[in-house]
Amino acid sequence: MRVNFTVNGRPQEADDVWEGESLLYVLRERLGLPGSKNACEQGECGSCTVRLDGVPVCSCLVAAGQVEGREVVTVEGLADYARDRAEKGCARGACGGEAPSGTSLDEARNWQARGSDSQTGEGTELSPVQQAFIDAGAVQCGFCTPGLLVAADEMLERNPNPTDADIREALSGNLCRCTGYEKIMDAVRLAAARQGEAV
Amino acid sequence: MPSPKLSTSLDQGGAPTGAPTKITQGSQTKGGIGESTLRPDGILKVTGEFAYSSDMWHEDMLWGQILRSTVAHAEIVSLDTSEALATPGVYAVMTYDDLPTEVKNYGLEIQDTPVLAHGKVRHHGEPVAIVAADHPETARRAAAKIKVEYRELPVITDEASATAPDAILVHENRDDHHIGHVPHPNVVHRQPIVRGDADRAAGRADVIVKGEYTFGMQDQAFLGPESGLAVPEEDGGVHLYIATQWLHSDLRQIAPVLGLPENKVRMTLAGVGGAFGGREDLSMQIHACLLALRTGKPVKIVYNRFESFFGHVHRHPAKLYYEHGATRDGKLTHVRCRIVLDGGAYASASPAVVGNASSLGIGPYVVDDVDIEAIALYTNNPPCGAMRGFGAVQACFAYEAQMDKVAKELGLDPVEFRRRNAMEQGTLLPTGQPVDSPAPVAELLRRVSAMPLPPERQWESSEGADVRQLPGGLSNTTHGEGVVRGIGYAVGIKNVGFSEGFDDYSTARVRMEVIAGEAVATVHTAMAEVGQGGVTVHAQIARTELGVAQVTIHPADTQVGSAGSTSASRQTYVTGGAVKNACELVREKVLETGRRRFGTYHPAWATAELLLEGGKVVTDGGEVLADLVDVLGEEAVEVEAEWRHRPTEPFDLRTGQGNGHVQYSFAAHRAVVEVDTELGLVKVIELACAQDVGKALNPLSVVGQIQGGTTQGLGVAVMEEIIVDPKTAKVRNPSFTDYLIPTILDTPTIPVDVLELADDHAPYGLRGIGEAPTLSSTPAVLAAIRNATGLELNRTPVRPEHLTGTA
């Protein structure tokens, strides 16, 4: 089957999709977006977390056909997504007030990702939460990182001043095996603090 | 180091032609060792661009799939692949009969593991056949069409069934070098260690405490699944992009099976999503290469989580039997112990795990009279091998439980009792080897017990109980009723590096040249970066040694000599040492060039100790002699060199005596837990750690390693265990739904106190750090639960039924 949907602000068309394929498989193997990771493929680890119409989901548990006509944001689009949100004055989560998605569908539709040709990563624009993960040492092997970033960014959109218990609750669906989570806590606190300063 | 001062000597008068130019004030190089520089791969990892092994993609590639045995021990009566082969989209199906050479087995030390089963399977999930197809689902379905008829054999599952006189042999006709000294062919290796006279010393003991302990099977549970891409090459060879811990060890095992010389099997490290020992053994490497060479197409294999549980070895489950004696004044008289490790169906790293468990079996304590025995069994359980802590973890769980028991018998505080027996520099290990570097065991315990305790009843708030702070969490199972607090301590000792006479070297190639008007260093090693931050540290070492700002880390591959394994807490020591050594050789060459070019302009070129700092050649007094850009000019200086730490020797097979270890790493933990005694639920409130790291090359990464290792120890204390059915030897919980690892809700705050007492034998005085925190974490949590509940708790992990008396 053919699936049409929007990924990181760009319309995408995936052909020859087998009915059993997950959104994760289509992103990784058909659209060349391997940033979302395949660590358990049963919705336990959160490594494949993306936003589907603004809602964080495990893309391994979403059948590709279900995303027809919908909006997906992956880690590859996170920096642009965060910048767009900030430019619209939503950096403190004000735009997440009414809906769980935090970003209205119209807003998401109007948003376009910008290209990046970075090979080494130098000069790449990062979202505040991405930068905080690097600065706080929250990245080791990095396999859980994309999913955690999408989940943490979404939480900070809803809840710009989270308590530690809030952070732990929001990220409890994302397994990390390297860090013991302490540096991840530091990173999210740091991103929240910087977000607060920026406003 | 002194801060270099402004040099004026060369500015006076008109500079001669060819004299150094661009002289400015020198400065110490930024981003060197001791700073918390950020990961060079960090940006790629947070943007999703970092290419892990499962992200590899190639035009026209096929997907490989492995068919695994559904039973643990059986003869293969028949194997029919015809239907699978006839499936549209399938390019190849291979079995044992399709293996191209006489080499059909592989293994880290003993080549006892079949690439594909030959007439027999020895554990649940053993590879039987492989399939390549144009879609992963096609490959899966085709594999399911392969018909295998098994005739089941009785299963060997424990010491009793393995060593019974009439026991079926897991491996017939063993000819490995351990068979001559084991008591039974189902014992892989046995290491006794005897020093002093434990029988006589027992006579001096006022108290004797015995204990029997069980350690469950832990999984590494790295998040990046086993995966890789094999690309056939025009010369008949193959290029494998792979996640591994040791490229050259893989290469040595892969090439003979393929019938290729090693130079026709090119290996490049793909991004590695964690390892923790689980990637020391081969998984899909040979299978992908076989399918690629058979089909002439690139073949990608990615395990899913279910398969990953069958695709790598686990931590050895163990039975441990201990006897400790002590005098009334709190001094240990003797220790006797017997450690039985279940190695499962294939040897993997079992012999070395036995060496560690035995030699470190009594912990970081002074005991002159010891009688130790460790063995690893062959059984039909899943194969076990390397995991973070490697034999020392199981022993630490048991000897620390014993230390608490003895302290209780003596009426002593557990920390005070440990302090009275703590090892220090100069103490002899049970192997007779002196510990010849700082061993701050008492100091680490003092530090960890001096940390402030977390407040009591922190779940209470003005709005009632915050259930997220309580055992059971959001399940809302208690508001504090039945909840009791406990505190526990533990300390451990881990060896660093490969022991027992292994030639544990590493290789580094370092190049220095001028690029775009700046001196730049390139570091090329075969070190597997698995997340630990080796690449960060290599760049720091190069900056410190070569005084450059920019360092390029070349991708790890087999185009450079072996770096040894990313295991045994050894890479910063050994490959870090190799990088330092290669940098020093490069520096000598650069200085020679400088002397040749500019030596006549300043006497210091000949007389002073010269350093490279801030892109310049400076004297040890800080005077700048030349800019590296001018010294190097068009020339590139490159050195590749091997580097070795002090040699070790094997343990005597009868007495266990021998200088077997290179270095030691010490960590201590204090655990604070709260237990809902009615439901048997445990919440770890805090898990504080103090560790001696010798020298923290990157403090941020050091703390990250300690916290990560601590959390893996927490996991095996309260939740992590692969359950193997004792009747069938089949794995019952191969998924993240049923095998639980700590989430961010299960993990407490982990305050870390880092001590830096230099080991003068090691580069920069550093110690390998990755494993020690995994040792003492588990027994500290167990001690805290015992302290809270008063229960004996002789097994780990602790499950609710062990706490409620319903087990």
UniProtKB/TrEMBL annotation, chain A:
Gene Ontology terms for molecular function: 2 iron, 2 sulfur cluster binding; metal ion binding; oxidoreductase activity
Name of one Pfam family that matches: Fer2
Residue span of region Disordered: 99-125
Domain 2Fe-2S ferredoxin-type: 1-78
Biased amino acid composition, Polar residues: 113-125
UniProtKB keywords: 2Fe-2S, Iron, Iron-sulfur, Metal-binding, Oxidoreductase
Protein name per Swiss-Prot or TrEMBL: Oxidoreductase
Organism: Streptomyces phaeofaciens
UniProtKB/TrEMBL annotation, chain B:
Start-end of Polar residues biased regions: 1-11
GO terms of molecular function: iron ion binding; oxidoreductase activity
Region annotation (Disordered) ranges: 1-36, 454-476
Ranges of residues in domain Aldehyde oxidase/xanthine dehydrogenase a/b hammerhead: 47-154
Pfam families, alphabetized: Ald_Xan_dh_C, MoCoBD_1, MoCoBD_2
Protein name: Oxidoreductase
Source organism: Streptomyces phaeofaciens
Lineage of producing organism: Bacteria, Bacillati, Actinomycetota, Actinomycetes, Kitasatosporales
